[in-house]
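Title: Prediction job returns without error message
Component: structure pipeline
Severity: low
Priority: P3
Assignee: unassigned

Description:
Job completed but the reporter wants confirmation the result is attached to the right record. Sequence as submitted:
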Amino acid sequence: MRIQTEHPAQASALPADERVLLLEEVNLKWLLAGMGLWIDMSRFHNEPSYAARFLALAEASNSPALRKCAASLQGIQESTCQ
C-alpha cells in the first residue's frame, strides 16, 4: 500500500489568512463537539444567522479556549469582509 503525501509547497498553497481561518474553524468545530454541539460547516459558511448563533454560543461559553477561538474567528471574518 502506498500512501500519498502532500508536498510541503502544496500545504502552503492557501494564503496565510485562509490557513488561519481554516484552523480556527476546525478548532471551533471540535471544541463545540466536545460540548455536544455539532456544526454543519456548509451551513456555517453559507448562512450568516447559523454561524452567528454558534459564535454567540462559543463567546458565552465557560471555556477560555472556545471564547478565544470565537473572538479570533470574528476578527478574521471582519478583516476579510473589508
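Comment from assignee: result matches the submitted record. The two ends are 47 Å apart (CA to CA).
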